[in-house]
Amino acid sequence: MDDTALLRTLAIEPATLAPAPATVRTADARTRYGLPCSTCGAPSVAATTVTTPAGPRWLDSCRDHMIAAAKLRSAGGGFRGAP
Ligand SMILES: [Zn+2]
After folding, report:
1. pLDDT digit string (tens) for 70-79?
2. d(CA 72, CA 24)
3. pTM surpassing 0.90?
4. Which residues crowd ion ligand 1, with CB under 5 Å?
């Protein structure tokens, strides 16, 4: 599943996501832990990036939405997290 479909499935409007750097390190992602989940607003435990027409954006996820996003991504051919 590509990022556009992922965001649509999770009912996330890409324009609401914070801009992310083109290259993300684990340390960058960890600074976002605890921010509101992009889907439900609960404290996040993971941060990855998604590609949008406006450029890379942060996708902050609580545990449940981290798992949901990983399953959706793997169903479509791969998981992409911070290295
Ligand atoms: Zn959530």
Report:
1. 999 887 655 5
2. 21
3. no
4. 37, 39-40, 42, 62, 65
